[in-house]
């Protein structure tokens, strides 16, 4: 002879409620919602369903074509706010990435367009050859900038790798 295998729709889990009872064919399986939660599509705190002969939980339009589940209006509001925060965080992080890439590209183009020879000429220029104080002050600023930039330009491989990592 042959034996019949009992039809079982399978256990259900709900983070806002507890399923209890039998998930076997024609067994009663009850969902009880936690405090502040209700069965999807209504104001019930609990619902009982039976496993049909085909072994698949029924879904109907009352439950948005899904098996019953518990929903908490408070939790849904919290989840919606959290989703909004995530969207804005993603937007801000995307803008930071774009600005960082633009900064790295600008620095790459700007620093690599400078010639080391020009920086050395500025550093060797003599202050007493300037005609007035304003020109002397301008040359001092250029010498200071050249003193800081020249090591970067001379070690251009390190500069490129650093900017690549920034990007």
Automatic annotation (TrEMBL):
It comes from Alexandrium catenella (Red tide dinoflagellate). Residues 2-72 form the Sushi domain. The chain crosses the membrane at residues 87-114. This is Sushi domain-containing protein. Keywords: Disulfide bond, Membrane, Repeat, Transmembrane, Transmembrane helix. One of its GO terms (cellular component) is cytoplasm. GO terms for biological process: intracellular manganese ion homeostasis; magnesium ion homeostasis. InterPro entries: ACDP (IPR045095), CNNM (IPR002550), Sushi_SCR_CCP_dom (IPR000436). Residues 83-167 form the CNNM transmembrane domain.
């Amino acid at each position: 002879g042959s034996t019949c295998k009992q039809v079982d729709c399978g256990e259900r889990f709900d983070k806002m409620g507890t399923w209890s009872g039998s998930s076997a064919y024609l067994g009663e399986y009850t969902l009880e919602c936690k405090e502040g939660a209700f069965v999807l599509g209504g104001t019930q705190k609990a619902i009982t369903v039976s496993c049909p002969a085909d072994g698949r939980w029924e879904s109907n339009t009352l439950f948005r074509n899904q098996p019953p589940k518990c929903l908490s209006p408070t939790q849904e509001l919290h989840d919606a706010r959290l989703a909004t925060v995530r969207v804005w965080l993603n937007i801000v992080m995307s803008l930071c990435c774009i600005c960082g890439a633009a900064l790295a590209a600008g620095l790459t183009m700007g620093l690599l367009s400078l010639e080391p020879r020009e920086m050395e000429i500025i550093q060797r220029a003599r202050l007493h050859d300037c005609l007035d104080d304003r020109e002397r002050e301008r040359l001092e600023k250029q010498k200071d900038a050249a003193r800081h930039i020249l090591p970067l330009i001379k070690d251009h491989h390190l500069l490129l790798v650093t900017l690549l990592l920034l990007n």
